[in-house]
């Protein structure tokens, strides 16, 4: 009984669909295959130098967060994309944040932001986890072994189950968000620099805020919050909150990991010393902002990305990433919202298209 539970899948119907496991009903009677439609031949791809993986002795696991407002289904945009890179030889761990607006070629769709890959594959009934792993792995030249997709509402619950977290905040932020759970339908974020204690709702707003000059700033905050969760897990004296955290995670996670594999990763995380954790957030050196048919996207410099990923384990800890950057005005995210049309509000739907042009850091 215990063995079958440990080796079993985690999954609701949505999770099984994400892995391409839902069987569609067969038609009543077979019909002849449709005649092939004429296709315009695609031009041959230019020859390029073979790409060498920047890291080879690693296990790579993708953590993706879907940014949807509380109580809403949304478009399954994976606005948080962090690859956990486990070095087999040294025991070091690297966190590589992939900007949600990175431009990639998506099979059967074309050029689009990387945060749309999961939702597009899900809508087609394809294996959404596999599609997301492939796109992120191709971008970084790192084979992604497994993926974990978590909704932001579950992230809120996880932080609350842990009793809150303490985050190293480098810049003041004032922002507000749609939240139907409050009497006014809005929730305010107001944090000042320093060690800030956050509940689940505050932590979720902190990682969602468009405060800063680009998607890179948001990626830094995401890594800082992930590090804060890790620190909190390390400081839980009797580990009394761990069963509750596990139950919260298992109910709503979509993953291709078995239970015993997820438990093993959790055990490794609890035994990891903070000085062995490194963080990499791309900047304008690795991705250039450009518009394609009116859409603001970041276009990758593959050679620069390979160089940065190759130096991952010489990078500082995630909580130190933003120390050398000047802080923008605290309410800059609110200023952007005031100039957007009322129906643009989908900060969880298409935040970049309605925002000011992307700027480099």
What does this structure look like?
By secondary structure, the chain is an alpha+beta fold. Helices cover 32% and strands 22% of the residues. The protein has helices at residues 2-6, 13-18, 117-124, 128-140, 152-161, 200-208, 215-235, 242-252, 259-270, 302-310, 332-339, 351-354; strands at 58-66, 78-87, 93-97, 103-106, 110-113, 146-151, 165-169, 173-178, 186-191, 194-198, 254-255, 277-281, 287-292, 295-300. It has a six-stranded mixed β-sheet with strand order 11-6-1-2-3-12, with helices on both faces. The chain has a two-stranded antiparallel sheet with strand order 4-5. The protein has a two-stranded antiparallel ribbon with strand order 7-10. α6 runs antiparallel to α7. The protein is globular and about 55 Å long. The model is unreliable at 21-47 and 341-361 (pLDDT under 50).
Report the mean per-residue pLDDT as an integer. Answer: 78
Per DSSP, what share of the residues sits in E-state strands of 2 or more residues? 15-25%
Question: Which word captures the global form?
Answer: globular
Helix content: 25-40%
- The unreliable regions are 21-47, 341-361
Order of helices and strands: HHEEEEEHHEHEEEEHHHEHEEEHHH
Strand arrangement, largest sheet? 11-6-1-2-3-12
Q: Count helical runs.
A: 12
Distance between the termini: 53 Å
Biggest sheet character:
6 strands, mixed
What value does the Rg take, in angstroms?
21 Å
Number of strands: 14
User: What class would the helix/strand composition place it in?
Assistant: alpha+beta
